């Protein structure tokens, strides 16, 4: 049994080394804006030739104006959509609002492609704006 294990060990080690060589990581930064909002998504992911990989994201939406301009707004709903994933979140605002940036973090079992355009939607105070983010880290 010991001889069989010794004979099999180099093969197993070779498979592990070769599979590690097929894995790569990427970091993409997508950015865009509309009249009242700007958004940014940072994706950190890994993938290999055998799977779609996985990624983590940080999604930030920022109001371009002053916090007091959001005084009549109770909540903001913001979302993004990629080819493989979507996210939607709602932020209740304090009275008076003190924040103009809203950040959400998450992960998925898939990766975003470098040339993908990401659709963003923001709703606040009966208004709505949609715009696209493009990869600025190419």
Estimate the strand proportion.
Answer: over 45%
From the spread of the alpha carbons, the general shape counts as: elongated
According to CATH, the homologous superfamily is: Immunoglobulins
Continuous helix count: 1
| Helix coverage percent | 10-25%
Under the CATH scheme, which class? Mainly Beta
Strand numbers in spatial order across the main sheet: 5-4-7-8-1-2-3-6
Number of strands: 8
**Contiguous uncertain segments of 5+ residues:** none
Alpha carbon gap, first and last residue? 53 Å
The chain-level structural class is mainly beta
Overall tally of domains: 1
Rounded mean pLDDT is 85
CATH fold assignment? Immunoglobulin-like
Biggest beta-sheet profile: 8 strands, antiparallel
SSE string, helices as H and strands as E:
HEEEEEEEE
**Rg measurement, Å:** 21 Å
How does CATH name the architecture? Answer: Sandwich
Description:
Helix content is 14%, strand content 54%. With 138 residues, it is mainly β. It has a single domain, classed as Immunoglobulin-like (Sandwich). It has an eight-stranded antiparallel beta sheet with strand order 5-4-7-8-1-2-3-6. A hairpin with a 3-residue loop joins strand 1 and strand 2.
